[in-house]
Every structure is written in structure tokens, then in C-alpha cells.
Amino acid sequence: MLAILYHLNRLIDLYTENTQLFEETYPSGTTLKGNVWSPNVFYEIDAFLGAARRLYESIRKVLWKHYQGRGTTGRWSSIRKVFTSPLNVPKSFLEILDKSWQTIGVKLTDYRDCVAHYEPLTNGMTTCWLDRYEGRWGATVKLPANPEVQSRMAYDFDSGPEALEYCHLVACHLVDLCESLQAEPTIRSYLDNPPKHP
Q1: What is the DSSP letter of 78?
Q2: What distance separates the 2 farthest-apart alpha carbons in the chain?
Q3: b/e map 68-103, b = 16+ CB within 10 Å
Q4: What angle do CA 79, 83, 168 make, to 5 degrees?
Q5: CA quadruple 91, 96, 97, 98: dihedral positive or negative?
Q6: Average pLDDT, the chain
Q7: Is residue 70 scored above 60 in pLDDT?
């Protein structure tokens, strides 16, 4: 979770730096809109997507540690296996996790898979668009609406989400998910009274 928040904060810093640079170059009244070349924004987006997707796998490992079936060996190979073979995971948390996966995890996985296995989200000619918002410059970087196509040529950036807004939404959601996991009685008890090692 800390890596996710780190990359989100770096992304905010980069947006701020880009808008400040544009403000210095084009003070109010000198132009209506513009853009800057900013591949480092996408580097942070890529890192954020990877860290956020890994969090689901970390949750899988925590669940296995605390709720594995008696006499079972191995582990779930991915977060998806938790839903098909939940063992002793409390139903209440399993419902929270399933809803999280369906509303956030699936699309997040599509974005991460694009970056990690198929096509980068940018060809290196990344554009950060600047527009006026309430008298100041504000940055916009779009993600594709359809990362599942796994092809930069077929990406639909026009109707996709704004990157910082999307990353912020995912980060807030994952904080809530981690808090729900931490509140489970078995895990809460473990955190309050961790085993003592010699």
C-alpha cells in the first residue's frame, strides 16, 4: 500500500511541476490551451498500476496465511482462485473482496497487463494537455477506455479516464479494502498479539 501511495504522490508532483512550468512559459492571457512532452508521468502511472495490482496478490497471501484449510498444502496461484476455492475466508470479507475485484481489480488488471505484457500506454511521445481551470492551468493525461484490446493502435483515449483521477480513485478504494481486511477478527487478533519469536 505504501508503494501505491508513493507513486500517487509522485504523480501529483509531476502534474504540479508540469502546470507550474506551463504557467511560467505561458502566463494567464497568453494562450488558451497547450501541451508538454512528459513521459515521466506515464512512468509513474505504469509503476502505480503494477503496485496496485500486486496489492491484490498480497491480500491473497494474507488470506492464505490466516484462513487456509486444515491439512491443505500450497497456495492459491492468483487472487482469482480465492473466489473459486475460498477455504475458510469469512463470507463477509469474501463479498467485499469480490465486489472490489469486479469494480476495480478487473480493469486495473487490464491496464497492468497492457503495460507488463503487451503494449505500453504511450509510444514515448507522451502529451500532457494543459487547460485553464478557474483561472489557473490544469493538466490532463488520458488513459485508454479499452485497455483490454492490448494494442496501442486500437486504444480509445478520447473516452478514457483521466489518469490522476483514476489512480486516486483506485488508491482510495484499496485503502478501504485493506482496512476491511485488517478489521477481520482473526487478522485483527494477530496484529494486536503477534507471535513472539525466540
Answers
A1: S
A2: 71
A3: beeeeeeebeebeebeeebeebbeebeebbeebbee
A4: 50
A5: positive
A6: 88
A7: no
Sheet holding 127-133, edge to edge: 33-37, 127-133, 136-140
**How much is the pLDDT for 176?**
98
The answer to whether 167 and 45 have CB atoms below 8 angstroms apart is yes
Q: What is the pLDDT of residue 127?
A: 74
Which of these, 139, 128, 132, lies nearest to 27 by C-alpha position?
A: 132
Q: Residue 95 is placed in which grid cell?
A: 463479498
Q: What is the pLDDT of residues 88-122, one digit of tens each?
A: 899 999 999 999 999 999 999 999 988 778 777 66
State the residue for C-alpha cell 498500476.
49
Residue 40: what residue type? N
% the chain with pLDDT above 70: 93
In the block, which residue shows the cell 500532457?
128
> pLDDT tens digits for 170-184?
999 999 999 999 999
β-pairing verdict for 127-133 and 33-37:
antiparallel
| Rounded CA separation 35/122 (Å) | 15
Q: Which of 2, 38, 24 is CA-nearest to residue 139? A: 38
Report the amino acid identity of residue 54. R
Rounded to 5°, the CA angle 102-57-160 comes to 45
Domain residue ranges in the chain:
2-191
